[in-house]
Structures are given as C-alpha cells and as structure tokens.
Write a structure and sequence with these properties.
Layout (H helix, E strand, L loop, with lengths): L7 H34 L16 H34 L17 H28 L13 E8 L2 E6 L4 E4 L1 E5 L4 E7 L4 E4 L7 E3 L5 E5 L5 E7 L11 E7 L1 H14 L2 E2 L1 H9 L7 E3 L1 E2 L3 H7 L13
Parallel strand pairs: 1-5, 4-10, 11-13
Antiparallel strand pairs: 1-2, 2-3, 3-12, 5-8, 6-7, 6-9, 9-10
Helix pairs in contact: 2-3
C-alpha cells in the first residue's frame, strides 16, 4: 500500500521490533518461572538451593578455595592458548604478506621448552594443591574449635536418612538439627545398599556402606538453613533422599533438644524394623528417645530390613 507521508515503512519496522522484544521478554519470564518451579518441585526454597560455591563452614571454605586455586592454575594455560589461537589465525591469514612462510621448518628447542615446561609446572602445582588439601581435609580429621564436638550416628535407608544423637539420646528422620560453630563428628553406616552422604555447603561427601562405618567431621560456621542429599545412585527413590539441615544457636539447639525429648515418640528396634522395611520416602520425624544399641546392631547386621532394596540389581 502506498504511504502518502513516506513513514509507513518505518512504522511497520518499529512495530515488528517491538513485537520481537515483547516475545523475548515473555520467553525469559517463562524460563525463569520454569526454573523456579523446578526448584520448588525438588522440595527446595530458591534461597536454599545453594551448593559448594556458597560454603558455610571451614571444610566447605577450604574445598572452595582448592577449587578456585586449581581453576586459576589451569587458566594460566587455557587463557594464553585461546589468545594465541586467535593471534596465530590473524597473523597467518592468507592476506597478510608480512607473515613468513616456512614449509621446511621442523623443530625449535625454545618452543619445545615452553610447550613441555609450562604444562609440567601446572601438573606439579595441581598435584601439590591436591596432595596438601587431601591430607588437610581428611574426613576423619577432627576440627579445631572451642566447643565440645557433637556426635551424630547416621544410617542410610531406602530412601531416607536416620540421624541418632547418642549422647543426647534423641534422633531424627530426614532432618538434621545441629548447633552452629560446633564440630560435628559423624559416624555413618548403611542399613541397605551403599549410599553417599553430602551437605554441599558444609563440605565433604562420604559414602555409607553396610557392615562398616565411615567418619566425617563438619561444622556450620553460623546459624542457617542448608540442605543435604544422597549424591550416589542407589535405587528408585535415591533422588528423594534430601534432608533439611538446621544450624541453630546453642541456646536454640538446647531448646530443640528439650522440646524433642518432651514431645517426640520413641524409636526402638521394632519401630526401626518397620521404618527400614518400608522402601519409600517418608516425612521428617523427630524421636524423643532412641534405643542405645540401634546403631551398633544396624552396623553388625543384627537389624535386618524387612524388604530388599528396590531398583538396584
């Protein structure tokens, strides 16, 4: 159609640009909503969906520092290689007559020294960082702190986590409550198949295996809400093996202990057998008293699950 003022084409272009911008905004909002819904579907508040990049304890901080140091060491090689790739492509382009063409060139001692010595130094530095960090962050190594360590016994089941506080004579299922700024000494085993215990913001992952114990020392630097999970495939319901971690001030933790002892039910061997035999995800639960021999009997195999693990060959 003919435009008498000569601006119709401009208006059409502007309208199309505005429509494309609107569609992009809608797509971005939909993507953000989808991501938020996915986090919510996983049972996590978006504010709590943090991992190793947001450490909240001395072990987590040390491991994050190792990751940053290793990345920086590798970038010493990666960045120059990327830059030189573009530099060589530009210098030796077909239209650059000043670039020397040497079809018979075969060897340079200086280049050989560079391409072998720098990677060798990178490997040595990475090995040093890994060696020192592995010994310094040994899971069984006790953490230095003024507070008395809190012992926690952990039993992985299908598809849940059982926590027993042997010195406090209480327990919890799929929920871990701890005092902040207090070393946590975990003793872990499995009542079924091998699993992996992991609280990303506090530090190291460690495996749980039937018939043996593993030891892990962690600490929450301050009060906060974190999350833990099973980080090893162990069957149909392993993805639901998530648990909340509540790090409380010492006074609040003492109040939680008193409330749990006064109001929560007991966990004896018979109750444990029913719990272990149900291969399903169950809600969080606290126990006001726990059989003192439960962990030892679970470890020695005296307490057997009433049903075999599902989804594992």
């Amino acid at each position: 159609m003919w435009d008498p003022d000569g601006h119709g084409g401009t208006r059409v272009v502007q309208a199309r640009c505005q429509e494309r911008t609107r569609r992009r905004c809608v797509c971005r909002r939909a993507a953000l909503a989808t991501a938020t819904a996915a986090v919510a579907a996983a049972g996590l508040d978006p504010c709590l969906a943090a991992g190793v990049s947001d450490p909240q304890g001395p072990v987590g901080h040390a491991e994050w520092l190792i990751l940053l140091n290793a990345t920086a060491i590798m970038l010493v090689v990666v960045v120059p290689v990327i830059v030189l790739t573009f530099a060589f492509a530009w210098r030796y382009r077909a239209t650059n007559d000043r670039a020397a063409y040497r079809p018979d060139w075969a060897y340079s001692g200086k280049i050989e020294l560079v391409v072998w010595s720098i990677p060798a130094m990178v490997v040595i530095l990475l090995a040093g960082v890994g060696w020192i960090g592995s010994h310094r962050l040994d899971p069984a190594r006790e953490l230095a702190a003024t507070a008395k360590p809190l012992r926690i016994e952990v039993v992985s089941l299908d598809w849940k986590w059982l926590f027993v506080y042997p010195d406090e004579h209480v327990g919890a299922l799929n929920e871990l409550t701890v005092p902040a700024a207090t070393p946590l000494e975990f003793e872990l085993t499995s009542g079924t198949v091998m699993n992996a215990f992991f609280i990303p913001q506090l530090g190291s992952q460690i495996y749980t295996m039937a018939g043996m114990t593993t030891h892990l020392n962690l600490m929450a630097a301050g009060p906060g809400e974190y999350w833990g999970e099973s980080s090893h495939f162990s069957g149909d319901g392993f993805s639901n093996m998530r648990f909340a971690v509540h790090a409380l001030a010492p006074a609040a933790f003492a109040a939680w202990l008193a409330h749990t002892r006064a109001t929560a039910p007991a966990l004896g061997i018979d109750a444990y057998l029913r719990l272990a035999g149900a291969a399903a995800t169950v809600p969080a639960q606290s126990y006001g008293s726990v059989d003192a021999t439960l962990f030892e009997r679970a470890l020695r195999g005296a307490v057997q699950s009433a049903s075999p693990p599902r989804g594992v060959n």
